[in-house]
Amino acid sequence: MISGLIDKFKKVGEELDTGEIAKKIVRDNDNILIDMNAQDQLYAKGVNRLGVRIDEYQPYRPLTIKVKIEKRQPYDRVTLKDTGEFYDSFYVETAEDRFYIKASDEKTNWLIKRRLLQNSHILHIPILLHMINKYGAEIFGLTNDSLAEFINDYVKDEAYNRVKDILNER
């Protein structure tokens, strides 16, 4: 009886140590994570995982604003949504102690790219090299508030239920 209970506690410990419980919760709720990233943050608020407005990196150009108005899409913030293909390509990968939200759309690298831009001075005095970001990899992932919401709404109850299931196994 006692040895069986000890074995169950060991199993709980192993699943917690290896992150298996957390990984399963993330995999089972990947659609929620994607929706929080794409719809709640990017589309509704126009912010990246740091909570920074995306248009602070590169705002819409006047032509894009005109197109957005014609399509009846938000133009007061950068949403990174036009046809929806980019959002539809979002997926979640789990690692040992974390998860990543990524996208497979062909525009992904262009949207997050960082490139060097050269500015030369008329007098050919030193050439300045500086980084130009499109929107950066920070467009993927949850803000602290979104992550806390996910933990409170999904992780706590599901982790509790998994531990309870292990302890109640016969």
- Beta-strand residue fraction: 5-15%
H-E string: HHHHHEEHEEH
Low-confidence stretches: 115-131
Q: What Rg do the Cα atoms give?
A: 22 Å
The beta-strand count equals: 4
* Bulk shape: elongated
Mean pLDDT: 86
What is the end-to-end distance?
11 Å
Strand neighbour order, sheet with most strands? 1-2
Largest sheet: 2 strands, antiparallel
Q: What portion of residues is helical? A: 40-55%
Number of helical regions: 7
Going by helix content, strand content and strand pairing, the class is alpha+beta
Structure explained in plain terms:
With 170 residues, this protein is an alpha+beta fold. Helix content is 48%, strand content 13%. It contains seven helices and four strands. The strands form two sheets. It has a two-stranded antiparallel sheet. A two-stranded antiparallel ribbon has the order 3-4. A hairpin with an 8-residue loop joins strand 3 (114-119) and strand 4. Helix 2 packs across helix 7 (144-168). The longest helix has 25 residues, at 144-168. It is elongated and about 70 Å long.
Question: Quick recap of the structure?
Answer:
By secondary structure, this protein is of the alpha+beta class. The protein has seven helices and four strands, in the order αααααββαββα.
